Amino acid sequence: MEILRREFIYIWYYFSIQLEQVFFYWALGMVIGSAISVFGKGKIHGAFQTLGRKKLGVLGLIPASLLGIASPLCMYGTIPIAASFSQKGMKDDMLAAFMMSSILLNPQLLITSGILGPEAVTVRFLSAFLVGIGAGLCVRFFYRDRSYFNFTGFSERKSRDTDPNPAMRFLKNLGRNIRATAPWFLAGVLLSALFQRYVPAEDFARLFGEQEGFGVLLAATIGVPLYACGGGTVPLLQQWLASGMSMGSAAAFMITGPATKITNLGALKIVLGAKRFGLYLLYVIATSLVIGLAMDRVL
After folding, report:
1. What are phi and psi of 74, to 5 degrees?
2. Distance (Å, rounded) from C-alpha 78 to C-alpha 132?
3. What pLDDT does 76 receive?
4. Predicted pLDDT of residue 255
5. What is the CA radius of gyration of the chain?
6. Contacts by 219-222 with C-beta closer than 8 Å and gap 24+?
């Protein structure tokens, strides 16, 4: 009994320290994410719709990917919006760039990732941006004369931010945001505390830092089953980087994790179909390895 009590004290100590370090970034991400969702979402999606009417060619994939990152919606919110854009004539390559980068990153997650440091935030942003553009290029050149998406049955959902009072709209959105992410965030802090207590830093560094290619491959692999919520993995990533994980391994995890999150996969399977869904998974794995290895070479 004394051993259990002592272990609880150790874990609580690590938990409280980690929570103190990351809480500000999580809370700031909640506030800014809700503000963008309530007051900026329409403008972002309006800009994307305007972009589709311009004949920019392949260069249009650049702003499409950037607008995907700026969009605050999760994948279940993005797909109905994309379906609406498709019905209005938006090309599949633009939709692919927008949706891919939106899966990987949003303003809330970008701000919460600030605890990882400017280098990791830059890597996360560039990875989402480049993977989004790459997805658009693949659809543009390999599905030039064929439809890539099947949005049958999807329609744009009604906004839940309908309160006539702007302040109440924001507060209600913030409340939903907190309820949806807080359990995963606290679970991530707890996992980080358990990691600090029971996983030797030198062993972790040997796996994810010193063995360059293997570390990237392993990080890309564990991103598939472990990733549940972006904010929940940030405390883990912070501890992993402090324990010796290379930036390339972190980049691979930050790509495969959100791209293969189970809720995202369920929605994507519907709009892509079995064959294109398989191609999507291959693309995610390939780009995570390429970007991860490249980051380890550069940084």
Report:
1. -80, 180
2. 14
3. 64
4. 92
5. 20
6. 219/245, 219/249, 219/250, 219/252, 219/253, 219/256, 219/292, 220/252, 220/253, 220/255, 220/256, 220/285, 220/288, 220/289, 220/292, 221/256, 222/253
Tell me the domain boundaries of the chain. Answer: 2-149+185-298
Contact 295, 253 (CB under 8 A): no
State the Cα torsion 182-122-277-62 to the nearest 10°.
120
Output phi, psi for 54, to 5 deg: -90, 145
pLDDT, block means (10 residues), the chain with 299 residues: 81 86 89 88 85 85 94 75 82 92 91 92 96 96 86 69 84 88 85 80 69 76 69 82 88 88 77 89 93 88
Residues in the chain: 299
- Spatial distance between the Cα atoms of 32 and 70, rounded to a whole number of angstroms: 12
Q: Dihedral through CA 286, CA 226, CA 222, CA 8, nearest 10?
A: 150
pLDDT at 212: 64
**Burial zone of 282 (CB within 10 Å; 0-12 exposed, 13-18 middle, 19+ buried):** exposed
- Residue 28 Cα distances to 185, 231, 233, 259, angstroms: 13, 12, 16, 24
Its pTM surpasses 0.70: yes
State the pLDDT at residue 3.
Answer: 79
